[in-house]
C-alpha cells in the first residue's frame, strides 16, 4: 500500500500523527508531513487506514498500485453507445418528468 499526503489540503488537525506517528509528523504550526516515501508496511496498514479515514479534510489518499498497462481495454465497439442515451423517445423507460 502507498499513500500520498496533499499538504495543501491539510488544516492541521493532527489526527494522522495520532493514529500513525511512524508515517506522519507535524511541523511547528501543526500541519502534517509524510515521513518516508509513502510506502506502508502491511503491519501498519490498519493504523494508516484509520488516519486516512479520520482525516477531516481528506488530505491523505491511497495511491492506486495499478499501472496503465493493467487497465482493461475499452469495449470492442460492437455495441452502439447511443443505444443507452436518455432521449424524449424513451423517457418512460428512464423515468423523465417534465
Automatic annotation (TrEMBL):
GO molecular-function annotation terms?
3 iron, 4 sulfur cluster binding; metal ion binding
Q: Which cofactor does it need?
A: [3Fe-4S] cluster
* InterPro entries in the cross-refs: Fe-S_cluster_ET (IPR051269)
Which UniProt keywords are given for this protein, alphabetically ordered?
3Fe-4S, Electron transport, Iron, Iron-sulfur, Metal-binding, Transport
The protein's matches in Pfam families, at most eight in alphabetical order, are given as: Fer4_15 (PF13459)
Q: Where is this region: Disordered?
A: 64-98
By what name is this protein known?
Ferredoxin
Which organism is the protein's source?
Mycobacterium heidelbergense
Amino acid at each position: 500500500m502507498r499513500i500520498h499526503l496533499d499538504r495543501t489540503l491539510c488544516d492541521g488537525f493532527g489526527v494522522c500523527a495520532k493514529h500513525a506517528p511512524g508515517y506522519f509528523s507535524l511541523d511547528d504550526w501543526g500541519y502534517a508531513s509524510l515521513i518516508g516515501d509513502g510506502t506502508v508496511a502491511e503491519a501498519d496498514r490498519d493504523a494508516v487506514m484509520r488516519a486516512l479515514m479520520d482525516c477531516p479534510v481528506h488530505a491523505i489518499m491511497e495511491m492506486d498500485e495499478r499501472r496503465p498497462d493493467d487497465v482493461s481495454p475499452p469495449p470492442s465497439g460492437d455495441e452502439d453507445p447511443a443505444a443507452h442515451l436518455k432521449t424524449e423517445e424513451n423517457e418512460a423507460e428512464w423515468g423523465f418528468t417534465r
